[in-house]
Amino acid sequence: MDSELTRRKFLAVASAAGAGLTLGGAAVIAGGDEKPALLGGRPVRKGALASWPVFDEKEEKALLGALRTGRWFRVGAKNVAGFEKAYAERMGAKRCVAVANGTSALMVAMAALGVQAGDEVLLPPYTFVACPNAILALNALPVFVDVDPETFLIDARKIEAAVTDRTVAVMPVHLGGNVVDLDAVLEVARRRKLAVVEDTCQSHLSEWKGRKAGTYGDAGAFSFQASKNLNAGEGGAILTNDDALADHCYTLHDNSRELGGGGGGFSGYARRGANFRMTEFQGALLLAQMERLEAQTCRRTENAVYLTRTLREIPGIAPARMHEGCTRNAYHLYMFRYDGTKFAGLPRAAFLKALSAEGVPVMGGYTPLNKFPFIRGALESRGFQRLFSKERIALWEERNSCPANDRLCTEAVWMTQNVFLGTRTDMDEIAAAVRKVQKYAAELAKA
Fold first, then answer.
1. Would you say residue 203 lies in a domain?
2. Is residue 404 part of a domain?
3. Does the pLDDT value for residue 20 go beyond 60?
4. Fewest beta carbons within 10 Å, which of 9, 189, 316, 430?
C-alpha cells in the first residue's frame, strides 16, 4: 500500500508540474530579454540558490545529546543502532549495517559476498571513483560496461558480453537518483550466478516499481557524505534482506567481532575484519536529518519534473531519461545532454561558462573513468601481475572500451540537488537562462 501511494504521489507531482508549465514558463524573468551576462547583459538571476546542508536546533540537540552521554562508540550506545533500525524500516529492508562511508559500504558488502583477489566485478564507467577503488581495494579487477547515454546509467544489454570465468559480481550504479533497469540486471545476474551490489549512494528513496532501490540485489550500498540527499558529513550503510549476509557485514566492519558478541573484548574473533564503524555523532545527525528527507525529496521531484518539461522544449537539451520501471527519482543530480550543434556550435565549456554567468550553477560531470592512469598503474603492480596473467591484463584496455561513455562525458551537464530545493521561479529562471544562451549562441561562440 505504501509503495502504491508513493507511486501515485510521484505521478501526481509529474502531472501537476506539467499542468503548471504554461503559467510558469510564461513568467517574465528579469534579464531574460537582454544579452547574456558574458556579453554585457544583466544576469537572469542573482544570489545563491537553496543552500546545503539544511539544519536547525533539531540537529544541534541530537549532537549535544550524543556528546553528553559520553558514549561515542557504537557498541552499547543507541544512535547508530537506532539509525540502522529506522533506515531499514524506512527503506523496506530487513537489515541495515551502518558504516563509515559509502566506499566502506561497497567494500564490506562485496567482501561479505565473497569478492576476492583475482575476481572481476562489472560496473559502469560513468560513476564516482569510489566504485573502482572499492573493487581494487579487494585486489579484484574492475571491468567497465558501457552506458546508455539517454539514461546516464549502465546499459544492461551489454552486461552479459562482459562476463568471464573470473566474473563474480556486478555493481549497478543508480546515478544521481535515477534507477538502473533492475529487471534486466537481475535477470543476467541470476542466469550467470553473479552477486549484485547496488550502488545506491546517490539515490536515497529512489524506487523501482514502487520498491526502494538498494533492496533488490544481494546488498545495497549508501553514502551519507556531505553532498548527499541524506547527509552526515560522512557515513554509509549496507541494506540487505539476508540475515547471514548482514551478520557477516557486521563482523567485517567491526574488526572481526560478531553482532551481540559483547563488543570490545579481545577474544572470540569470528572471521577477518577491519574498522569501518560509524560514530554515534553520525548516527545522531542522521536520525535528525531523516525527518527532513521525505519532504525534501518531494520538493526536488516537483521542481525537477517541472524543469524537465520546460527544457525538453529547447532544441539541443535532452534531460536524462528514466526507465519505465523507475517510479521515483531522488534527483541527487539533475543531468542533461547538451548538443552544441543546436547552439550555433557553441562548445560545452562555453555553454557552462555562459550559464554560470547567468547565475545558474552547472558543471560538466564525470570524465572517462576507465581511462584514468591509476587503474593501469594498479594492473601493472607486482600484486596484480601475480593475480592476473599478462594476457588478461593486456586485453583489459580492449575489453574496457566504452565509446558511448566517451561521448556522454563530452555532452553531460549537471546541477546538484540543492538547486531543486528552491522555488518554481528558480526553475523558470534556469530555463530562461538556457534560452538566452541559445538565442545568443553565435555571438558567444565568437566572443
1. yes
2. no
3. no
4. 9
Decide: 138 and 117 in contact? Cβ < 8 Å: yes
| Of 274, 289, 304, the domain-final residue | 289
More confident residue, 76 or 212: 212
Q: Given this model, what pLDDT does residue 259 score?
A: 87
Q: Are residues 139 and 8 in the same domain?
A: no
Query: In this structure, are 193 and 326 located in the same domain?
Result: no
C-alpha cell at 235: 557515513
Is 111 inside a domain boundary?
yes
Question: Do both 75 and 122 map to the same domain?
Answer: yes
**Closest among 179, 169, 246 to 212, alpha carbons compared:** 179
Give DSSP secondary structure letters for 422-438: S-HHHHHHHHHHHHHHH
d(CA 89, CA 93): 6
In 237-279, where does DSSP find H-type helix? 243-253
User: Tell me, what CATH number does 70's domain have?
Assistant: 3.40.640.10
For residue 336, give the nearest of 357, 322, 350 by alpha carbon. 322
The neighbouring-strand residues paired with 414 are 335, 363
Same domain assignment for residues 241 and 305 = no
Which of the four pLDDT bands, split at 50, 70 and 90, describes residue 18?
very low
Total count of domains within the chain:
2
For residue 348, what are the contacts with CB-CB under 8 A and spacing of at least 6? 338, 340, 364, 410, 411, 413
- Nearest in space to 282 (alpha carbons), one of 137, 94, 77, 106: 77
Q: Is 212 helix (H, G, I), strand (E, B) or coil?
A: strand
Mean pLDDT of 219-223: 98
pLDDT at residue 94 is higher than 50: yes
Pair 90, 215 in one domain = yes
Write the pLDDT tens digit of every residue in 152-194.
999 999 999 999 999 999 999 999 999 999 999 999 999 999 9
d(CA 300, CA 23): 20
- Of 289, 305, 327, the last residue of a domain is 289
Q: In what order do the strands lie in the sheet with 211-212?
A: 211-212, 207-208, 326-328
pLDDT for res 37: 97
First to last CA, the chain: 57
The Cα–Cα gap between 392 and 389 comes to: 5
pLDDT, the chain, mean? 92
Range of the domain at 31: 2-54+290-365+409-446
**Degrees (nearest 5) of the Cα angle 335, 339, 343?**
120
Are 264 and 295 within one domain? no
Classify burial at 373, counting beta carbons within 10 Å of its beta carbon; exposed 0-12, middle 13-18, buried 19 or more.
Answer: exposed
* Residue 55: count of CB within 10 angstroms of its CB: 15
